[in-house]
Design brief:
By secondary structure, the chain is mainly α. The protein has one domain. Helices cover 60% and strands 0% of the residues. The protein has 4 helices and no strands.
């Protein structure tokens, strides 16, 4: 994992809050979401934000990362390794 100078990060791409609420989904979707987040070892919020980031990146959006600059590329590489070792 890359160590990033906090002062440098703030100048280039600051970390900001994102408030989401009011989502209503089917019980089956919720169960699948919680199970997938649990298997990934992350919170449901992190799982959803990573999925959104992957979709944005696939559609051509450019941004430095989700939670820290560079973290999306690390997560994508980790997921590819998991698939190749379990598939």
């Amino acid at each position: 994992m890359t160590i990033i100078n906090t002062r440098q990060r703030k100048q280039r791409d600051p970390i900001v809050s994102l408030l989401l609420n009011g989502g209503r989904v089917t019980s089956g979707f919720r169960a699948a979401l919680f199970a997938a987040a649990s298997r990934a070892g992350i919170s449901v919020n992190e799982f959803v934000l990573q999925a959104a980031a992957e979709k944005l990146r696939a559609s051509g959006s450019q941004f430095s990362g989700v939670f820290e600059p560079g973290d999306l590329l690390e997560n994508l590489n980790d997921n590819r390794q998991d698939v190749s070792t379990h598939g």
